[in-house]
Design brief:
48% helix, single chain, alpha/beta, 14 helices, 5-stranded parallel beta sheet, 9 strands, 11% strand
Amino acid sequence: DIYSLLDKIKSSESTVLIQGENGTGKELIAKAIHYNSPRKDKAFVSQNCSAFNENLLDSELFGHVKGSFTGAIRDKKGLFEVADRGTFLLDEIGDTSPSMQVKLLRVIQEGTFIPVGGTEQRKVDVRILAATNRDLKDMVEKGTFREDLYYRINVINIRVPPLRERKEDIPLLVDFFLDKVAQEKNQKKKIMTKRALEKIYDFPWPGNIRELENEIERLIVLAGDEQKLTADMLSARLIEFGEKNKIQGARVHGKLKDALEELEREMIKEGLRRTGWNKSKLAKELGISRAGLIMK
């Protein structure tokens, strides 16, 4: 769905809001939009809005004129000017202050801004992409995010699902990261055992793809000369989660028949996700016939 949407909007000038948890790949999506757009030969600029306090962010985004504050020994061009005729990703836009939101609204709507300490307006032609891990609609209702800015940046909305909602991507990502590290270190690609991959698959990955990448890199470093990556090499939290998960959520009240049906339902649902809806493979894993699985 996301790839299809990206294909439709690549030539558009509309503002895009990319929402998703940390580590899901929001910046990669922003880069995909830019590098497939008519602006691809111009600058792609990204700024995390939570990285600076308000005054520093103001200077970073809009620039400043010489003498506007202590230490401003020369004029400085802001990132909006750097991104002129290109694309600007405002990352973590939900962390901006109310006064900064007013300035962003003006530059998004009119393409104009005033540098810190300046008096004359400057004009830029920038395509704006915004990203956040926060619920902006809820923030609008609470009065912490401007409603007019929310509707201005939310022309096209892309929700990036967390890794736990797209577990079928895990084997592909693991393989990609194994390849990547092997190329970077100029060594033979290591092999992940089935048991290790199962444990990686079962983990909920609160840090999403970034956390998964870090885990694979750690695994390869600690494996040393070993060619096979086994389950016992995984981080303690992954191993412990698998052990805890065996007893988590078990029903201890009510009718046995209902509890067994609930367990069957969960095992089948999770199994179908894990096998990519391959019923024959899952039936074999569960020790029942394919017809029996379809009946259930």
